[in-house]
Task: structure prediction
Amino acid sequence: MAATSDVRFDETLVAYRLALGHRSLALDRRDEGRGGDVMSESRETTPSDEDADLTREIRAGRTFSLSEAIGRMAGGGLMKGASPVSRTRQAELVIEDYLRRHLTDAGGALGGVLLRRVGMTDPRLGDHDDPLLALAEHVRRVLGSEHLLQDLVREADVEWGRVFHERPRFERAECPPHPDDPYTIESVRISLFELVEKLSRRQ
Result:
């Protein structure tokens, strides 16, 4: 158990140090803008209270959700001096993480297409307190329209072909699907039904 704990601590500490590195880089750029008059000795040499608290949480084995990590990056002490993450980008990251963990995606392209479509159909995505509600609404809309479902499957086929340099295997009416087709209308329908059920259970 001690070895596992040490590995988890090391990995999290690496991320923590990378964040501190971003803050240091921001300070370097600020100093360059002042003509280099600010001496390195004037920079922070001791961790802030927020940094010290985070270190203690890491050592205690505390894990952080993606939302909490983004929140610390956007408004916490780790990234002072750097540009905050936009609300729209925060929402996209939350949806992307959820799709990665909960969407059945045999070809590896459906999640990216779904994320892109949610953003295109909801220009106010960043205004949602819970971005996953926007995802659930979009999935229900697709499941309620055969035309939207067919469009989604076709776009997923195109994206799969582009990523893997393969000829897309489009499903044709009155023809059985290709045995190697990663996305058929029925398989995507099932994946979306499973996804919306998971989304409904969390509400």
Summary: The chain has a mean pLDDT of 74. The chain has two domains: 2-79, 87-202. The chain has eight helices and no strands. Residues 2-33 form the longest helix (32 residues).
